[in-house]
Predict the structure.
Amino acid sequence: NVYVTGPVTCGKVTLHTSVGPIDVELWAKEAPKTVRNFMQLCLEGYFEGCHFHRIIKDFIAQTGDATNTGTGGESIYGKPFMKEKHQRLRFGRRGLLASAGGVDDNTSQFFITLAPCEELQNKHTIFGKVVGDTIYNTMKLNDSEVDEYDKPLFPPTINKVEVLHNPFDDIVPRSTPQSRAAAAAAAAAAAA
């Protein structure tokens, strides 16, 4: 049934993108390692400036690589981590967030489904869903012009991430965009 939406969510962020805001609710109880990784990276500003580097029409839009190449990404755990699966979370509709890694190589990259993707079931960790009218902004990603490698010619970008509800009160950001900018400025000054 299309109206059965799965378990109750317990975390929320807004991805402010070049196609408009995308509100995301998270399944922290069903995918705790993945949501913790995502939430900490959000708090640290890691996703700010990330392009949607791969868009397959009516399938997925992938992002989360700070190098914007599609080959990068990091995990808060210092190494890639195993996928998590939950029997009530299924690739049955558009607007789902899932880790882009496979069985044991999850990092910061994730994708948003642009249609039902049941062929991905048990291959990726589903950890969130797009909510409200912002699903229409998500669907604007589907209209991106791409090359033969599914790379957008004018990539949509995550400009800012706003954490509305953090389900983990023990997360302490390792860094912030401001502290990284200050460290880069200090390194540039020392090199000059």
Remarks:
- The longest helix spans residues 177-191.
